[in-house]
Amino acid sequence: MGRVTGKVALISGAARGQGRSHARMLAAEGADIIAVDLCADIETNEYPLARPEDLDETARLVEKEGQRAFAAIADVRDRAALSEAIDRGVAELGRLDVVVANAGICPLTAGLPPQAFADAVDVDLVGVINLVHASLKHLQAGASIIVTGSVAAFMASMNTGGIDGGPGGAGYAFAKQVVAHYVNDFALQLAPKFIRMNAIHPTNCNTDMLHSPPMYRAFRPDLPNPTRDDAELSFPVIQAMPIPYVEPVDISEAVVFLASDAARYITGQQLRVDAGGFLKVKPWSGV
Q1: What residues contact 123, with CB distance under 8 A and at least 6 apart?
Q2: What's the whole-model pTM score?
Q3: Phi and psi at residue 90, in whole multiples of 5°?
Q4: Residue 258 backbone class (left: φ over 0; alpha: ψ -120 to 50; beta: rest)
Q5: Does the structure show a pLDDT above 70 at 157?
Q6: Active-site residue, 172 included
Q7: Domains along the chain with CATH numbers
Q8: Where does the secretion signal sit in this chain (predicted)?
Q9: Which is catalytic among the residues 47, 172, 216, 245?
């Protein structure tokens, strides 16, 4: 316990799913939390996103752990509004030590318009860059930046294992690939300042993104209206371990480690929490 005592962590997409899990675990380990989320839907993303009451619940869970919470509704696509929310959070909580760029969407439906590609890139890539860059002025030596990628970053596209992701899936895969490259290159620039930057790449994760009709249809294109039970028969195709998905807490454990001083010399890493998913799509290269 107490692995991040005294630190302040900023988390995007904090209202539910992985973001809420990260907020709760970081708070349990001693961090105060700045939680931001859009709390509204995006038209091409055909499953509902979080609501203001979800963000309120995240703040409540942080405070239940005995830590302070600053919650703000902000769109990661809007650098100015995001920066203003971060500045207010830092003014209230006093500092910023950890940045977790977690917000993401996956408009994974065949037949969507090209706007789905644009929306996925705007949230999953531009949103990451906006959060990180709007935070830089607050970060000092010892700070840790953690970016949520995806095992999709190591696939040629989301059209893998029989999955038809449509333009949104293509945008999602593109965004995650570029995010991985961004972390690699920016980590090198931040290292002389002793600011660390790493990516975590989950496989299927037990969140609302995975448990949604568009995702069920992507995994079971052979059925007109697949259920969760139908889709879960196909979910294990992504992993080498015979499981349908990992849990948000599995990702949060990696977040807390990378946020802590125990990882003080770990930077530029692409940490895959994927139950061996990478091993299924990438042969050994010898490097």
Answers
A1: 42, 76, 77, 103, 104, 105, 175
A2: 0.95
A3: -65, -40
A4: alpha
A5: no
A6: yes
A7: 8-207+248-271 (3.40.50.720)
A8: none
A9: 172
